[in-house]
Design a protein that fits this description.
The longest helix has 29 residues. The strands form two sheets. The chain has a four-stranded antiparallel β-sheet with strand order 4-3-6-5, with helices on both faces. It is about 50% helix and about 15% strand. It is an alpha+beta fold and about 300 residues long. The radius of gyration is 26 Å and the shape is elongated. Among the domains are: about 80 residues, no CATH class; about 100 residues, Chitinase A, domain 3 (Roll). Its main location: membrane.
């Protein structure tokens, strides 16, 4: 079975291979040196991008019924991007390889379909949602020193406790993270923006306090919370589904949930009983043998 991968960025729009008939010899390009027909164009596109394009088209067809995305959901994501980029919104679309907003919305719809399917098997409890919501009421400002081993983290933690140098100086000297030149400053953040282990440790600290070494997926951190601000949030019932989705997306980064997502996608394709009739691509969705046939040498 072909592997499914959740895209982290939006790719250039799908070229519809079905738009060009294999048997159609209509000329699509004329030159003084010769012409290019639809058939030749189709064959070239099929050979270069056919499998990837068909995979994406098949996946969209399979997901559409069970994991459909509303226009409201798409527009909500578009509004987020507009707020994030402001006057640079059109430039951001161009950098994604998207020519206009309608094309972006189509790609976004497909991305959201994949996201829904990938997270459909990830459970989120009411307690997790409540904890996330409670943390949303407090915005943290923090700095950290990132180390690549527990031993080194313990050494630097002793230096922090000793107090001969301030936290920012020690971050500049010892941190291996990109924030080191800025004294480890991370700016402000809320729940769902940091590694879960880092977030738990940071939210457990009072303003001005420093954590013991904390391990995350990035290494070992010594965290200092420099400020805590109360912020207004919408009622829980109005944003509960958004919080659930955010928690699911965070959990999706965990290897075990990546595996679950892969299994979900594989099952959807298998249940759809896909039969490809494009010459040269007929075997796209055939089950791959889990074990290779033994060679003659191995049988001797």
């Amino acid at each position: 079975m072909k592997k499914w991968t959740l895209a982290t960025t939006l790719a250039i729009g799908v070229v519809g291979l079905s738009a060009c008939s294999q048997a159609d010899s209509d000329v699509v390009v004329e030159t003084a040196n010769g012409n290019i027909t639809k058939e030749a164009f189709y064959e070239e596109m099929k050979n270069q991008h056919g499998e990837a394009v068909l995979q994406q088209m098949v996946m969209k067809e399979v997901l559409d019924d069970e994991f459909s995305v509303s226009e409201e959901e798409v527009n909500k994501e578009v509004d987020k991007l507009k707020e994030q980029f402001g006057d640079n919104y059109d430039m951001a679309l161009q950098q994604m390889g998207v020519s206009n907003e309608d094309e972006f919305k189509e790609l976004l719809e497909f991305s959201l379909m994949q996201q829904k399917a990938a997270t459909s098997s990830i459970e989120v409890t009411d307690e997790e949602i409540q904890k996330h919501y409670d943390r949303m009421k407090t915005e943290l400002e923090a700095s950290h020193i990132l180390l690549d081993s527990e031993e080194k983290a313990k050494e630097v933690a002793k230096l922090v406790e000793k107090g001969d140098k301030n936290f920012a100086e020690l971050a500049k000297e010892h941190s291996v993270g990109p924030s080191a030149p800025n004294g480890g400053e991370l700016g402000t953040f809320g729940p769902g923006k940091m590694d879960p282990a880092f977030e738990d440790a940071a939210y457990a600290l009072d303003k001005g306090k420093v954590s013991k070494p904390v391990q995350s997926s990035f290494g070992w951190h010594i965290i200092k919370v420099t400020d805590k601000k109360e912020v207004d949030v919408e009622p829980l019932e109005d944003i509960k589904e958004d919080i659930k989705s955010e928690i699911q997306n965070t959990k999706l980064q965990q290897p075990e949930n990546q595996q679950k997502a892969q299994e979900t996608m594989d099952k959807l394709i298998k249940d759809a009983d896909v039969k490809v009739k494009v010459e040269g691509l007929e075997d796209m969705y055939k089950e791959e043998d889990s074990q290779e046939e033994p060679s003659e040498d191995s049988q001797e």
